[in-house]
């Protein structure tokens, strides 16, 4: 599932700062994430990652991502939470 030490966003503990490396999804997923400003190379903080949606924070804005999408986002942990 994960390559080169990258992990799905859904498995990262809250408080961690991560960098998006790869999106494993179709054009619809890519377009929606692009509209939200979530692109490869972008760093953001994981606020909540338990049962239910994964909540991330970037530039003071919080976004909730469904578990399915969070499993398709491969990230590199920059700072552990």
Written overview of the protein:
The chain is of the alpha+beta class. The protein has one domain (7-79): Roll (SH3 type barrels). It has helices at residues 27-36, 67-72; strands at residues 7-8, 17-23, 43-49, 54-58, 61-65, 73-79. It has a 6-stranded antiparallel sheet with strand order 1-6-2-3-4-5. It is globular.
Keywords:
about 80 residues; alpha+beta; SH3 type barrels; six-stranded antiparallel beta sheet; 6 strands; about 20% helix; FeoA family protein
Strand order within the widest sheet?
A: 1-6-2-3-4-5
CATH homology superfamily name: Ferrous iron transport protein A (FeoA)
Number of helices: 2
Low-confidence parts: none
Cα separation of the termini: 22 Å
CATH class: Mainly Beta
What Rg, in angstroms, do the CA atoms define?
11 Å
What is the averaged pLDDT score? 92
Secondary-structure element series: EEHEEEHE
Helix content: 10-25%
Question: If you consult CATH, what is the topology?
Answer: SH3 type barrels
β-strand percent reads 35-45%
Shape: globular
Summarize the structure.
By secondary structure, the chain is of the alpha+beta class.
Architecture blueprint of SSEs:
Blueprint: E1 7-8, E2 17-23, H1 27-36, E3 43-49, E4 54-58, E5 61-65, H2 67-72, E6 73-79
Antiparallel strand pairs: 1-6, 2-3, 2-6, 3-4, 4-5
């Amino acid at each position: 599932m994960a390559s080169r030490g990258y992990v799905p966003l859904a498995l990262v503990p809250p408080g961690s700062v991560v960098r998006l490396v790869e999106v494993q999804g179709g054009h619809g997923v890519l377009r929606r994430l692009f509209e939200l400003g979530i692109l490869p190379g972008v760093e953001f903080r994981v606020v909540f990652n338990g049962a239910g949606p994964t909540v991330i924070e970037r530039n003071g804005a919080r976004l909730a991502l469904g578990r399915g999408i969070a499993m398709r986002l491969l990230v590199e942990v920059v700072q552990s939470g």
